[in-house]
Design a protein that fits this description.
alpha/beta; six-stranded parallel sheet; five-stranded parallel sheet; globular
Length: about 450
């Protein structure tokens, strides 16, 4: 909403300046009338690039809060192919993928504003997406993100370099003078970087701007593994430990094998069916979540259920269907996200919303839910906070209850500890969190 207001303000000021410059005998036209437009140079267009899942949400917000602006969704097979046509609109909405594909056309247009939403999408400075986005021309640039640092400080460099090229030097300079010294706990490098980026960051804390926001209560629910589940987990953990030893003795073995084993441990901690179709036992976590879900539904509440694994959500989909409980589901495969969200928000019979945390953890307003279930911990806790914010946001009138389900004596407990231990780096700069996969971290996870 701040960004929409900014675009409206800039447009109004620019149009007023044009009217003041008109000769006295020139007829004054409607500020937003098409008659006024004579060339692309007179009509400055803003471009907003975002994940594909957010295009319709942005479009609806513009129609609601700034109906006087002309909005064009640059998506689909029928999208325009000439940069000259862009000047007919106040705002162009497109996705990172299409911006990359159409960069030769988009780079020809000099936009008034180029805005990146969820700008962590360009965090990799050697990616084709970052290379393409860097070619966009604009008078002003703005990036919006709740997770500016997901992995390391290089993520920050990419986004800052887009907004203000060269402010942090080139990537090699940045790594030599900031990343490496900060990793070595150099306080001078830390303070220097903080001073450099501070003027360019507007950090909005929800508690600061939404003083009337209802309380948020969080609780960790520890779940015991079933006997068969625990046996399987210990077997796979032994394999992972042996892999680490093999890698130490044979450098040709890739760490990817260990990461694959960590993934399997996370799956088993949720439900062994996620990685073993023939498993016929029970999952302690699954049973605990079912009990909690049933209680929430029986008390006539709505709940968001987030998981890293679509297959995990499928298990709950089957259960809810068998019990006749109304639900919706959103994953990366969901086509009409807008319809799914609207159904959950408006239909009282739909009590549960099953959501893949990577597909639906950002950009959604789901204030009808006052319960949030996080079925498994994510490596980056900021992603979890984004998911919670789908319900705990402007428009929410009820107290929000968050339940984090953690399997006892599993990798999930270790992930929670690492989340806390690894939070200091980003908190120094933008109150963020990240986790690395050093040998020390891997050994701790499997300890």
């Amino acid at each position: 909403l701040q960004t929409i207001a900014l675009i409206v303000k800039v447009n109004e000021e620019e149009n007023n300046d044009k009217l003041n410059d008109l000769p006295e005998n020139t007829e004054q036209l409607d500020l937003f009338g098409q008659e006024q437009e004579t060339s692309n140079k007179e009509r400055k267009t803003s471009l907003i690039v975002m994940p594909s899942s957010l295009v319709h949400n942005w479009f609806n917000e513009f129609k609601k809060f700034a109906p006087g602006l002309s909005i064009y969704k640059h998506i689909g097979n029928e999208r325009i192919t000439s940069s000259r046509q862009l000047g007919a609109f106040d705002v162009v909405l497109t996705t990172y993928g299409l911006a990359r594909n159409d960069i030769d056309m988009l780079a020809l247009f000099n936009f008034k504003l180029v805005i990146l939403d969820e700008s962590q999408m360009v965090k990799n400075p050697v990616s084709k997406t970052y290379e393409a986005i860097s070619k966009l021309q604009a008078r002003h640039k703005l990036v919006l993100t709740g997770t500016p640092i997901e992995n390391n400080l290089e993520d920050l460099w990419s986004q800052m370099n887009f907004v203000n090229p060269g402010i942090l030097g080139n990537l090699r300079f940045f790594c030599d003078n900031f990343v490496e010294p900060i990793e070595q706990k150099n306080p001078l490098a830390t303070e220097r970087l903080k001073r450099l980026i501070a003027p360019f960051i507007l950090r909005r804390h929800k508690q600061d701007v939404l003083t009337e926001l209802p309380d948020l209560q969080e609780q960790i629910v520890y779940c015991k593994m079933s006997e068969l589940q625990e046996k399987l987990y210990e077997q796979e953990k032994s394999k992972a430990r042996n892999l680490i030893l093999d890698i130490k003795n044979n450098k040709k073995l890739a760490n990817v094998h260990v990461l694959s084993q960590l993934l399997k441990l996370r799956q088993i901690a949720n439900h062994p069916l996620l990685c073993l179709d023939s498993f016929e036992g029970e999952s302690g976590k699954f049973e605990e979540i079912i009990r909690s879900l049933q209680n929430v539904v029986d008390e006539d509440h709505k709940v968001l259920v987030f998981s890293s694994f679509v297959q995990h959500l499928e298990l709950f989909k089957d259960y809810l269907s068998s019990q006749g409980i109304g639900f919706e589901m959103l994953t990366g495969e969901t086509r009409d996200r807008e319809a799914v969200v609207k159904h959950f928000q408006e239909d009282e019979s739909v009590k549960v919303f099953l959501i893949s945390i990577k597909a639906g953890g950002t950009g959604l307003n789901l204030t009808r839910a006052d319960y949030v279930f996080l079925l498994d911990p994510w490596w980056n806790p900021a992603v979890e906070e984004q998911a919670i914010a789908r319900a705990h946001r402007m428009g929410q009138t009820n107290k929000v209850f968050v339940y984090r389900f953690i399997t006892e004596n599993s990798i999930e407990e270790k992930i929670r500890i690492l989340q806390d231990a690894k939070s200091k780096l980003a908190e120094l700069f933008v109150d963020e969190n990240n986790i690395d996969f050093s040998e020390e971290s891997l050994t701790f996870l499997l300890g």
